[in-house]
Design brief:
9 helices, about 170 residues, mainly alpha
Length: about 170
């Protein structure tokens, strides 16, 4: 609850003083880190602002499991890709052992999730980290281009993907 409310003081008390388990999961199998990357707000490097980034960093420093998957098979990277928290995406990619190729129960990577949610900033961050991932397909054979074409308000997404030299426009889904 403290993480979802973005209450840094409560999170510090729970984690640092009361030694709350940062590996604990809720009924959806989500850890506090999953919840932290979904918190809206201004994400900045300024730890004194007490915002979502501060809670995220507190959880990471307390040993929150970056590779943990929830009941849908999604890691915190998947959740960050859906939530437009590019700060968390960049931090994961630069400072942790997170698996950018991790797939959820539908075979979707974080890149698939970003495209499905229309999250262009996340798409750019994830594509920059692993350009060849643009042709990864989910369990239904969908590439990120397939998902972009299927989504609403997709013109900018499709254009961005087509401008990439790495996307294979000849892939066929099932």
């Amino acid at each position: 609850v403290a993480v979802k409310a973005a209450n840094l003081d409560a999170c510090k008390c729970l984690i640092l003083k009361l030694k709350a388990n940062v590996n604990a999961t809720n009924s959806l199998g989500r850890t506090p880190l999953h919840d932290a990357v979904a918190v809206p707000g201004t994400w900045s490097d300024d730890e004194s602002d007490g915002g979502p980034a501060s809670i995220f960093q507190l959880l990471i420093s307390a040993g929150a499991p970056v590779l943990a998957a929830d009941a849908a098979g999604q890691t915190a990277l998947h959740v960050a890709a859906a939530s437009n928290t590019t700060y968390a995406l960049a931090y994961f990619l630069l400072h942790t052992s997170i698996d950018i190729s991790a797939r959820d129960l539908k075979g979707m990577t974080a890149l698939h999730v970003a495209v499905q949610c229309g999250n262009i900033p996340a798409l750019k961050v994830l594509e920059g980290a692993r350009p060849d991932a643009l042709d990864d397909v989910d369990f239904e054979g969908n590439s990120v281009l397939h998902l972009a074409v299927q989504s609403e308000n997709n013109q900018e997404l499709v254009q961005l993907l087509l401008e990439s030299q790495m996307v294979n426009i000849t892939l066929k889904n099932k």
